[in-house]
Write a structure and sequence with these properties.
Elements: H1 5-25, H2 28-39, H3 48-55, H4 59-71, E1 75-80, E2 83-88, H5 92-111
Antiparallel strand pairs: 1-2
Helix pairs in contact: 1-4, 1-5, 3-4
Amino acid sequence: MVIDPVELQRLAEEFRRCQKLLLALGDESRQHLILEMLQIEDCNGARVGTIAERTNLSRPAASRHIRILKEAGILKMRREGARHYYYFDVDAGVMDDLLQMAAHTKAIMERLPDRSGEG
């Protein structure tokens, strides 16, 4: 079975739109950071120092990972005067893109025959 090249091109474009998110989620330190932030009881957010302590990262490393997660649409920030608070809040458009790519990939894979050589 041959997949329509136009459909494959569309899937490639969907993947490109998800690259920032996938790269952000692909790092073990950022995964740990997200898990720790999800366990913070105050959903109003946490400051970099608190995040650094909880993740055993230096403040500069925590800041770098936070910036990557923020740019990927996974974390958001709010200000209180000079203080910045970061919280887990995935951008709906980013999540929609990921779900669309996953559903499209699944649909293509379901149409393909078993290629493992085991069946």
